[in-house]
Amino acid sequence: MTVLKTSMRNFVAHKGRMALSAVAVLLSVAFVCGTLVFTDTMNATFDKLFANTASDVSVGPKKDDDAQETGKPQALPAALRAKLAKVDGVAKVEPHVTSMQLTVVKGKNKSLSPTSGAPTVGTNWDESQQKSVEITSGHAPHGAAEAVLDADTAAKHGVKTGDELRVLAVPGDFTVRVAGIATFKTTNPGAALLYFDTATAQTKLLGSADAFSSYGLTAASGVSDEQLKERVTAVLGSSAGGSDEYTVRTAAESKEENKKNVGSFLDVMKYALLGFAGIAVLVGIFLIVNTFSMLVAQRTREIGLMRAIGSSRRQILRSVLVEAVLLGVVGSVLGIGGGIALAVGLMELMGSMGMKLDMGELTIKAATPVVGLTIGVLVTVLAAVLPAVKATRISPMSALRDAGTPADGKAGKVRATIGVLLTALGGLALVAAAKADDAKAGSGMLGLGVFLSLVGFIVVGPLLAGFVVRVISAVVLRVFGPVGRLAERNALRNPRRTGATASALMIGLALVAALSVVGSSMVASATDQLDKSVGADFIIQNENGQPLSPAQSKAVRSAGDVAHFTRITTVNAKLTLPDGKTVKQGLNASESTYGEDLITETVQGKFADVWGKDAMSVPEGFAKDHGIKLGDELTVAMADGRTAGLRVKAITSDDTSINKGGMFLALDTARQYLPADKMPLDMLVLAKASDGRTKEAAAALKASVEQYPQIKVRDQSDYKKLIQDQVGQLLNMIYGLLALAIIVAVLGVVNTLALSVVERTREIGLLRAIGLSRRQMRRMIRLESVVIALFGALLGLGLGMAWGTTSQKLLALQGLGVLDIPWPTITAVFLGSAVVGLLAALVPAFRAGRMNVLNAIATD
């Protein structure tokens, strides 16, 4: 009880000094709890949506990995409906039509498709739809000229009942009038939804009045879902092709399947966010270690008195750890509340992107606060262990003399030796990764090298501080005269503290630098490959990644001032190889002008020969692995088509990132062995302008697809910018998440300076007494902060560039062979660190400048 009282008294007495450490715990716990609450809420809302929309038993086409992907929606015969209706236990059969291969356009070619990556879905309006949505304006669709639009899409694009929309689907384009607006009863998954009557959906979306996408079966009273599934499977098994043609699921199985599809995305998001939270926790540990180390140092005499009057080492240890527990509990409780607020913010953000999440579905599982509290308390206690153990080693007599604990030179040498050894091992691992011939083995060595070098730099930080701080000071501080020298000595006074404070900042900046190098190298490599390989003037493709419909492809190829077009698609096949193995493979089918539009290096044979009859190419690595030689004939079984004997006319180089590992054959060869209805749609089209008519060709191409807003015509510079923007968006998102770790690191600098000011109260008073002005005092604190921040930045940026350079060497195995160090970014981060140091010192410097000189000198 005495220990608890003492700990409580010390905690309350130093609550101001504990505040920033509590904020670090708060931020870390908030990130973890916010992630858990957000993903749990997403799962709960989708569970509700799937439960509301699932039929007792559903029948759909079986996804066949061996089938040809044509780009057209899969369908079941309409005749199957009558057969299912006769199954014993079926009360009702509802046919469903669904297609995600359409675009909806309003007015002058304004697309209503989501920009978040969610699909545009066309479906038929029936009773099952009314489980998830209700018409809140207008009426249900009747006839081919009417449709119902979801309320979120309508509100976003200003669509009202009576407006005319154009629907671009695979079978063809058509026009409808908005007859009604449907509002979701649960969660809008972010998609744009358009509802038609059933007959219209069949003919306009599937291209046939005799087809449906799936069937929903309602079980008769007294018949369970499992029983109905068994009966349906038995009946379908007796049909031609058997039950292998169909997928039969109960409501629970459908719900689980849908959860699995959504869950994979949510899991990636969840673990990515938790990973960044983990980085913030790691950085927070440095802050807490520094806080308790300085508090223990400042209470040396107090601890000596406690030991002198009979407190045991165990009681001193327990006292410090109890303070840590109190800090962890306070920070964690606040962090749990902050996490819930963060989850609400994320839900609002998703809502702005089109996915409306009902706040009434906010899900806080019992495990979430338990996890948050456990992490906060455990991390705080672990961080306080070393300072607590140090407190127990303080000699009562030396403490009473205010001598503190003598520096342990032996321990410092051991620490430095271990740090140098770990750093060297990390460096060797990074070198081994850079020289690896296999990406998998190299990735393992890269991970080991990152871990060892990071730990090594953290351990050896105090040793580096003595040298690096002096170098920085010689460049940055000497111009400030005596004040600059005082700031330098303050930073060097306790190298271990300076190293720990800088290490917190180092971690975040190392990741920023590494990712910057990787991202910049990826863009530079892709740009280099485009310059070397792409001979086409224009690349035309669907923005949402879907293939071009026949009408869209025809419109593209109607443009004038174009010397030639090259259509490209993918054909699924099974290859029987000389070594007897059979492999599934997607073959790139194209026209003979492909070799002009996308220059492909070969190691054997001529690429131009691939476009002859019954010819193909294979990549260098594939040929080596399977013993394929130039001139060999491979047995190629086209999915849903005939088997061909194709002769290898070229072996392509693997030294590229464009179509690396691709196999090629002529489009005419694919047509020869595939039925017309099984030919896949064009994935993209390349175009070469007529001589001297590049501008005119660009205008003609853009005019030809003006009615299709989802199709983009890009020249090479546009495509390079697209790659740069995509990489940049990804990096900006990662930088945003890493900002939490950097904020925690900045709090560490603030806390270190604030506690340092308290520790040096008497010294500050004496400096003021001998003539140092308030302004000079504030400048000294700010300069000390800048040096610590720049020290951390130098370590982090150097380490990060080493990681990034090694990563690029591994990417070179995939054809991304250009190393590009983004010096503007690195320089901006380094200079930004100085600004961070200045900002972090504002409050401590202000406090130091306001100290009363006589009171400061008299401080015990």
Explain the layout of strands and helices.
Blueprint (H helix, E strand, L loop, with lengths): L1 H12 L1 H39 L3 E5 L14 E2 L2 H6 L4 E7 L1 E2 L2 E5 L3 E2 L8 E5 L8 E6 L7 E5 H7 L6 E6 L3 E12 L7 E5 L1 H9 L4 E2 L1 E6 L5 H13 L8 E5 H48 L1 H9 L4 H40 L14 H26 L3 H5 L8 H26 L4 H38 L4 H13 L1 H39 L4 E5 L7 H7 L5 E15 L5 E9 L3 H4 L4 E4 L9 E5 H7 L6 E6 L4 E10 L10 E4 H7 L10 E6 L4 H11 L6 E5 H44 L1 H9 L4 H38 L11 H18 L1 H8 L3 H5 L3
Parallel strand pairs: 7-12, 9-11, 18-23, 20-22
Antiparallel strand pairs: 1-14, 1-15, 2-13, 3-14, 4-7, 5-6, 5-10, 8-11, 9-12, 10-11, 16-24, 16-25, 17-18, 17-21, 17-24, 19-22, 21-22
Name a few traits of the molecule.
single chain, 860 residues, alpha+beta, nine-stranded mixed β-sheet, 26 helices, 25 strands, globular, cell membrane, MacB_PCD, transmembrane helix
How is this structure best described in words?
By secondary structure, the chain is an alpha+beta fold. Helix content is 57%, strand content 17%. The chain has 26 helices and 25 strands. Strands 16, 17, 18, 19, 20, 21, 22, 23, 24 and 25 form a ten-stranded mixed β-sheet that branches. Helix 2 (15-53) packs antiparallel against helix 21 (716-759) and helix 7 packs antiparallel against helix 15. 45% of the residues are buried. Mean pLDDT is 85; it is low at 403-407.
* Overall radius of gyration: 34 Å
State the oligomer. single chain
- Unreliable segments (pLDDT under 50, ≥5 consecutive)? 403-407
Mean pLDDT: 85
Helix/strand class: alpha+beta
> What kind of sheet is the major sheet?
10 strands, mixed
Distance between the termini: 28 Å
What's the overall geometry?
Answer: globular
